[in-house]
């Protein structure tokens, strides 16, 4: 059993796009994967009907409602206080009764052993390699027969991946290294071809500027026309 008597949260890192500009990140969430292909792929592997779902690194809680529709309960864990407060307001405004919102981190979950059926982590902590300690915590809290889903950007296919490869934020990170890490830890991969679909050009520009260094962001904005960006997700999953 993990010792829960701690004053700090190991493994936490800054997420500048959502923490600096949560309203801009809301625009990104609305534009991303409009056909909900990620959720469809997850459901085809392990549906969350009647299950306890852990939304790990839940941010401001955008995805909670999608799981709440069918889950018996959703536990949302977010280490960033202002984001967690926004998530609380969201579930109160939506009157979602089967939700708990907690502090915690991928490396320090204030949950009992074998207490959740499914874990969803989207762009949160599990940036391979170097996230093995969080995987130890997943193994502790997931029930036998449960599943973990880790969602990350694909670095090989699509327009968005080509932008990532130009970014200093991804310098030295390759798809081969990332996929090898997850395979060695027992995860399988589904590559999901999706898109961003914006309603205005201004929204697209806000999101691009939130995701890339200033010089590159302006280059992307000048090069890319329209309101749509093709965007591939990597869905890594494992059964326990």
TrEMBL record:
It holds the Pfam family Methyltransf_11. It comes from the Bacteria. Keywords: Methyltransferase, Transferase. Transmembrane segments: none annotated. GO terms for biological process: methylation. GO terms for molecular function: S-adenosylmethionine-dependent methyltransferase activity. The keyword Endoplasmic reticulum does not apply. Residues 54-150 form the Methyltransferase type domain. InterPro entries: Methyltransf_11 (IPR013216), SAM-dependent_MTases_sf (IPR029063). This is Class I SAM-dependent methyltransferase. It comes from Candidatus Chlorohelix allophototropha.
């Amino acid at each position: 059993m993990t010792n829960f008597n701690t004053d700090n949260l190991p493994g936490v890192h800054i997420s500048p796009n959502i923490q600096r500009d949560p309203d801009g990140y809301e625009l990104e969430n609305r534009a991303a994967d409009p056909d909900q292909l990620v959720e469809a792929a997850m459901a085809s592997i392990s549906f969350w009907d009647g299950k306890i779902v852990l939304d790990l690194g839940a941010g401001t809680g955008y995805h909670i409602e999608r799981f709440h529709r069918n889950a018996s309960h959703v536990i949302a864990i977010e280490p960033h206080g202002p984001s967690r407060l926004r998530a609380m307001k969201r579930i109160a405004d939506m009157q979602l009764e089967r939700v708990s919102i907690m502090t915690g981190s991928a490396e320090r979950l204030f949950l009992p052993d074998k207490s959740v059926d499914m874990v969803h982590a989207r762009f949160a902590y599990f940036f391979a390699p170097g996230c093995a300690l969080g995987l130890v915590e997943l193994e502790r809290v997931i029930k036998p027969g449960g599943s973990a889903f880790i969602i990350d950007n694909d670095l090989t296919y699509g327009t968005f991946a080509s932008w990532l490869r130009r970014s200093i934020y991804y310098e030295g990170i390759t798809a081969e290294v990332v996929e090898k890490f997850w395979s060695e830890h027992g995860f399988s991969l589904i590559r999901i071809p999706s898109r961003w679909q914006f309603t205005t050009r201004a929204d697209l520009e806000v999101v691009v500027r939130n995701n890339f260094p200033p010089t590159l962001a302006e280059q992307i904005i000048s090069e890319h026309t329209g309101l749509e960006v093709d965007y591939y997700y990597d869905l890594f999953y494992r059964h326990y």
